[in-house]
Amino acid sequence: MFDVLFQSTTIPAMEQVVNFTEARHNVLAGNIANVDTPGYQARDLSVEDFETRLKQALDARRGEVRSSGDPDYASGTNLAEVSQNPKSILHHDQSKVGMEFQVTEMVKNQLQHNMALSIMSSQFRLLQAVISERV
Question: Is the dihedral of CA 37, 113, 88, 90 positive or negative?
Answer without folding.
Answer: negative
